Amino acid sequence: MWSARGNYLRHSVSFNRLIFEVVDDVLKQVFGERPAEVIYDFMEKFSHLKREEIAEKPEVFSAVLGKLLGSTGRLIERLILKNLCSRLQLEYEEKEGYSFSDYIKELRERFER
Fold first, then answer.
1. What per-residue confidence (pLDDT) applies to 9?
2. 96 lies in some domain
3. If we measure between CA atoms, which residue out of 83, 101, 95, 93 comes closest to residue 18?
4. Are 112 and 30 in contact (CB under 8 A)?
5. Which of 42, 55, 56, 105 is deepest in the core (most CB within 10 A)?
6. Has residue 1 been placed in a domain?
7. Residues 6+ apart with CB under 8 A from 29
């Protein structure tokens, strides 16, 4: 699934923080600052998921994106995963049957090794 392009960066940042930064960057790049805030507000109001908890509950985040954006949610997830892999210096490869949370769990394991 993941091909290393070199040693991935660990920095002093936690995996949860990295996920938060990547999600925030992607949402703001795709939708803009204010619409990204609306997505976060919707997520917290209807799913009780705070943006800081996305890495801990990726399945809830995925469900919120699907509910709010329909099939576009899958595209956003893919952009998040590609960006995350890029930051970890890994190549993103789609794996049949994998959900967003499956990818996040696998990336967390690699990050924390």
1. 47
2. yes
3. 83
4. no
5. 55
6. no
7. none
For 33, phi and psi rounded to 5 degrees?
-60, -55
Q: How, if at all, do strands 90-91 and 3-4 pair? A: antiparallel
Q: Write down the pTM of the prediction.
A: 0.85
Domain with residue 43: its CATH number is 1.10.1200.200
Long-range contacts of 90-94 (CB under 8 A, 24+ apart): 90/2, 90/3, 90/4, 90/5, 90/8, 91/2, 91/3, 91/4, 91/5, 92/2, 93/1, 93/2, 93/3
88 and 9 Cβ atoms separated by less than 8 Å: yes
d(CA 17, CA 15): 5
The strand ranges marked E within 19-74 are none
Summarised one tens digit per residue, pLDDT across range 53-102 is 999 999 999 999 999 999 999 999 999 999 999 999 999 999 999 999 99
**Are 104 and 80 in contact, with CB atoms under 8 Å apart?**
no
Q: How many domains does the chain have?
A: 1
